[in-house]
Write a structure and sequence with these properties.
Length: about 325
């Protein structure tokens, strides 16, 4: 990357992928005054960013002259396509960005393949998966974990700090991928445990809102339990993270555990319960439907409590 452009305000930035998460993250860069151009396969999903001063690209090729390009896509196949496919960011060896920062949740193998494709074209590659969802981003609560060349990280870190409240560098290579996968294993295990104990309390006569209020204000409470409480109390399963996406991360996590010879008995059991949520057919709802499945297996019929609950982010649910 050009040594004269160490200030984030001087870097030109491209953005690929403006779904629920990508749009919210790109918006924070645009509001910070970053010179930003965005592309999305469905252009209409990117166009709202124009109101924040972001240029909308007609093709990925329009981003090749950017200093830094962020990617935020759903699958390893999507990442390979936007970087290395026909018309992808790396398709023209004579015109490439200085660095790619990928914020997607993909396997270390997929990330490594894209890192190598970038290296062959002289492009630095940072893996920068995130923790949070669109509402967390908007509230300034997103966290990022980053791995790759330290020099590249130091130059783009100001951009990352516009996007989230916390940025943790964990070393070279694709270490950040393992960190994010471990994070999402914990996400599933904690949610299943929270579902189990909440159903136990309710079947014993305790309203969910009262029980979760106690938990949230105890030493066992957390940012996560608090901002998941509205969904659990009012059975609002508007999707922030679906069972299918969680299943994907459990598959990645258990594969990593096998490779590293780490027994994961609790995670393995949780993976089967996540699979049950997928098998129920409710794949377009939030993964908090784990609560419903637990209640059904416990002979408990849940009803929304219709209680206004603070999620700690200024109202509403987030995952």
């Amino acid at each position: 990357m050009n040594d004269t452009k160490t200030d984030s305000s001087a870097l030109t930035v491209g953005w690929i992928g403006t779904g629920r998460m990508g749009a919210a993250m790109a918006a924070r860069l645009a509001r910070a005054g970053v010179d930003l151009t965005a592309w999305n396969r469905t252009r209409a999903k990117a166009e709202p960013l124009a109101e924040l001063g972001c240029a909308i690209a007609d093709s990925i090729a329009d981003l090749r002259d950017r200093d830094v390009v962020f990617t935020m896509v759903s699958t390893p196949a999507d990442l390979e396509q936007v970087l290395n496919g026909d018309g992808g960011l790396l398709a023209d060896p004579e015109r490439v960005p200085a660095a790619v920062v990928d914020c997607s949740t993909v396997s270390t193998e997929s990330s490594g393949a894209m890192r190598e494709a970038c290296r062959q074209r002289g492009v630095a590659f940072l893996a920068a998966p995130v923790s949070g969802n669109g509402k967390v981003v908007a509230a300034g609560g997103l966290t990022l974990v980053v791995s790759g060349p330290l020099e590249t990280y130091e130059r783009v870190a100001p951009l990352l700090r516009h996007i989230g409240k916390s940025v943790t560098y964990v070393g070279d290579g694709d270490t950040a991928r393992l960190v994010k996968i471990c994070h999402n294993l914990l996400l599933g295990v904690v949610t299943q445990s929270l579902a189990e104990i909440t159903v136990l309390a309710e079947k014993g006569g305790v309203p969910r809102a009262a029980f979760l209020d106690f938990i949230n204000n105890s030493v066992m409470g957390s940012v996560f339990t608090r901002y998941k409480t509205p969904a659990l109390v009012n059975l609002d399963y508007t999707p922030t993270f679906t069972p299918i996406l969680l299943r994907k991360d459990f598959d990645l996590g258990l594969a990593a555990a096998r490779q590293l010879d780490v027994p994961m008995p609790v995670a393995a059991i949780t993976a089967q319960l996540v699979q049950a949520s997928v098998s129920s057919g409710r794949v377009n709802e939030d993964f908090a439907i784990l609560l419903d499945l637990q209640a059904a297996s416990s002979g408990l019929e849940l009803k929304p409590e219709n209680v206004e609950v603070d999620d700690g982010l200024g109202g509403g649910d987030a995952s």
